[in-house]
Amino acid sequence: MTTPAFDAQGLVPAVCQDARTGEVLMVAWMNEEAWRLTRETGFAHFFSRSRGRIWKKGETSGHTLAVREVRLDCDRDTVLLLVTPAGPACHTGARSCFVEVVAGGGETALAGATLGEVLGRLDATIQARRSADPGESYTAALLTGPLDRPLKKLVEEAAEAALAAKGGDREALVRETADLLYHVLVVLARAGAAPGEVARELARREGVSGHAEKAGRKG
After folding, report:
1. Is the pLDDT of residue 82 over 70?
2. Among 57, 77, 140, 218, which residue has the least CB neighbours within 10 Å?
């Protein structure tokens, strides 16, 4: 079995990344025992240098990190854990430990979210609405009502985004695109398809000419 290249202290840094959104959540250290426990249990374990002991993420707070995939970098001296967090990853209560952006002058500001991070969180919210009351939740109504309703909304939002682009209304285009992406996620959820499947399909097309890709589909 491939193992990390532990340093002279028997440690290796482990980066934890949200498997759904791609957001980097935290960084901690692993020794051989933490590495083994993580692989065996499916939950992130680390070695605390200050306390000198193994700890399971979320052992007291319940904010565990379920490990979906384990990767090593090219030198095997850094571990990447793709995880599903059960609550905030940071001890401060923040979703991620990486919440500040340092500008050129040294001042800091709160980090903004990437499109992938926001869409991942939105998809999680949509999935959670499956059990909500359709009379109180618009998303639940789209998920449980007639299929034609979300499909019509998808077409409607696509048309409105196109009209905003045609009219040169940048702000309207942004708003309508947000509506469109939400309804795309709802329709995917209705079909039992995950956004990750779309991501894999887009990754498959990277480096392929659009003309060639379309020609391949016809073939």
Report:
1. yes
2. 218
